Amino acid sequence: MSTEERDYDDFSIVPERDELVTHRKQKRGNSLSATSGNQIAASSGSSSLVKLLLGVLFLGLFASGGGAYYFYDQGLQTQISLDRSNDRIVQLENRLNLVDEAAEQSSMGLLERVDFNFSEIDKLWAARNVLRSDAGGLNNTLAGQAENITQIETAVANQAGMINQQAVNLDQNEQIIETIRNQINNLDSSVAGLNNLNINQQLTSITGDLNVLKSSLALEDSGLVGRVNINEQDIESINLYRLSLNQTINSIQQSLNELEERVATTNTRPTIFQ
User: Fold this and answer.
1) Are 250 and 115 in contact (CB under 8 A)?
2) What is the pTM of this model?
3) What domain range is 153 assigned to?
4) How many domains does the chain have?
5) Residue 21 domain-assigned?
6) Which of 17, 12, 7 minimizes the C-alpha distance to 45?
7) Cα–Cα distance for residue pair 55/61, rounded to 1 Å
8) Which of 51, 65, 77, 273 could cross-link to 117 by cystine, CB 3.0-4.6 Å?
9) Is the dihedral of CA 249, 252, 256, 262 positive or negative?
């Protein structure tokens, strides 16, 4: 039995109902054949429409199945990607935890190092301040010593002027002595020329005068020599004091140089800790 016959059998039910209607309506007997023909044409159109709808439904089911399989496959791929992403995220979290621990340890070490460096810098600054105070005291001492040296040099200059004046006085005294000696020689020559004169008394008086003059000259020479010796001793003592002051200044200068070297080394040490 073909499909068209089955379709015809299926739709043949409707004309039977129509025939019942036509039997009920006996006045429309002639129009029964025309009505059944129209219903057969309508039934054939309905069968083609049903086939079309079934085909569309089948295609829709097939497309739905393909789409479902496609989306299922995409869901599996997405799940696999999500699992991989989760694994990657877990690995990254573990690495971040390790990095955080290492960074925390390194930061703690750096903080301890920075605290140590700052403590050392504070110590160096304190030592520098102490050295500055010591250097200030030494500078004040040097200033006082310089004033003392200036006073000593002034005293030495005054003593040198006095010695020069005494040397001038000695030269003048020597000239006076020389003139006296010349006078004595002249007297001796005049005494030698006086033979018959009463020159014993004159010689005695002259000799007395000469002795007095010699004694006065000797006293004056001895006084001048003593004063010169005293001045020379004063100059020697001043020179010795000046030498001792120079030694003290040299030792203070060496101490200042050592302090400057220590300050320079303390200024360069903070760069090592940085």
Assistant:
1) no
2) 0.30
3) 31-273
4) 1
5) no
6) 7
7) 10
8) 273
9) positive
